[in-house]
Amino acid sequence: MKLWGGRFSKSTDKSVDDFNSSIRFDQRMYRQDITGSIAHAKMLGRQGIIEKSESDLIVKTLGEILDDIENGKVEFLIDAEDIHMNVETILISRIGDTGKRLHTGRSRNDQVALDVRMYLRDEADELNEMLDEILETILNVSEENIETIMPGYTHLQKAQPITLAHHFMAYYEMFKRDKERLCDWRKRVNVMPLGSGALAGTTYPLDREFVASELGFDSVTKNSLDGVSDRDFVCEMAFVLSVIMMHLSRFSEEIILWSSNEFGFVDLDDAYSTGSSIMPQKKNPDVAELARGKAGRVFGDLMGLLTVMKGLPLAYNKDMQEDKEQIFDALDTVKMCLPVFCGMLKTMKIRKENMLNGAKGGFTNATDVADYLVKKGLPFRDAHGVVGRMVAYCLDKDMALDELTIEEYKTFSEIFEEDVYEAISLKTCVNLRTVTGGPAFETVKKVIEGYKK
């Protein structure tokens, strides 16, 4: 007989047991479930809701069950449905009627809400450490490449010269915001729902604040309906994970391009590449490609969660069981991608000469020619037209702007002098951009040093 089976005259069909059961995926929350139950049992004893001796026995036995699970001595049962009922069933089998007193003053509804919050909170702490590692890796690569000039792009067309450090630090900003989002999310998840009961609280004199303190929560939920039916913290976590994967995917796309023969900006380490089953020359950027591909999977998890929740009336509905597989999958995916992506960045070789040569092509210093004219007194729109005609001329002659003779320069504008060559050298183009947030060597260096502190 199931723990809830008193009202029923027959057992559920085996196919319904299999369909209804969530133990195959929610068993990963065993530690949070037992920790929450221990805090609840302590509170029941403190409040005199059950005898102190019973509370102590329950706490002691739950600790033993936790040890047995972690030592592989426990086999969970499908027909016990979920991790909560499995733990309670084991508890009752060991201490009899005393174990049945554990569930006093709570429901599976507020119990599962508690477990999910605690589990995601713990996972977020691990994720935070992974984001720290990728931020540190980006800083280190950037610090080594402050003077590595490369082309910057818009529309995937060469635009202006920048540095690899400047480019990488753009991703630093993105992942830093991801970390901030995760920390901000933690404030909202760290509110304890236990004590909400099934939907309307309980008549027992629970000390919710004591349980919250025991479990490291900042506060307790203020509405019992919301306490059991809220899953926006799950959706928000999935959104944060999706943004992380979006940033990883964009970064991956660039690594894939840069490692191609056409770009040749980086060489990926053999340990982070694969080959072809038929073409012996191939070296494929599979780590970056898989990270890019797995982004869609995490986006799908977010959409799945939003779709599950969008039509549910208050309070708890069984549909909400579907939140776990999707958020677990999203978490597992991101936690798989971040370390291997980080390893790829740490080990890849930067081909600085190819990056510099890439910046020399595509007229990346054209804007600086226009700026040169503006500084000499020509209105910007007129300067823009002059340089546009110069680029057309250079395309026709298959040459670069800095390859024009001063006589050729003067055919476009008498303003040009010999100092134009220094003004439009790639190093000058980069280093004159000292505005906050710009790519000048010293500007980027200060940003890196500030973040390292």
What's the layout of helices and strands?
Elements: H1 14-20, H2 23-26, H3 30-46, H4 52-70, H5 83-95, H6 97-100, H7 108-143, E1 149-154, E2 157-163, H8 164-189, E3 191-192, H9 208-214, E4 219-220, H10 224-229, H11 232-258, E5 266-267, H12 286-309, H13 323-347, E6 349-350, H14 352-360, H15 366-375, H16 380-397, H17 406-412, H18 420-423, H19 426-431, H20 441-452
Helix pairs in contact: 3-4, 3-7, 3-9, 4-5, 7-8, 7-13, 7-20, 8-11, 11-12, 11-13, 12-13, 15-16
Low-confidence stretches: none
Q: What would the average pLDDT be, to the nearest integer?
A: 95
Strand content: under 5%
Residues in helix, %: 55-70%
Q: What's the total number of strands?
A: 6
Can I get a quick summary?
This protein is 62% helix and 5% strand. It is mainly α. Helix 3 (30-46) runs antiparallel to helix 4 (52-70), helix 11 packs parallel to helix 13 (323-347) and helix 12 runs antiparallel to helix 13 (323-347).
How would you sum up this structure, described in words?
The structure is a single chain. By secondary structure, this protein is mainly alpha-helical. It contains 20 helices and six strands. Helices cover 62% and strands 5% of the residues. It is elongated. The mean pLDDT is 95. The chain has helices spanning 14-20, 23-26, 30-46, 52-70, 83-95, 97-100, 108-143, 164-189, 208-214, 224-229, 232-258, 286-309, 323-347, 352-360, 366-375, 380-397, 406-412, 420-423, 426-431, 441-452, and strands at 149-154, 157-163, 191-192, 219-220, 266-267, 349-350. The strands form three sheets. It has a two-stranded antiparallel ribbon. A two-stranded parallel ribbon has the order 3-4. The protein has a two-stranded antiparallel ribbon with strand order 5-6. The two termini are 61 Å apart.
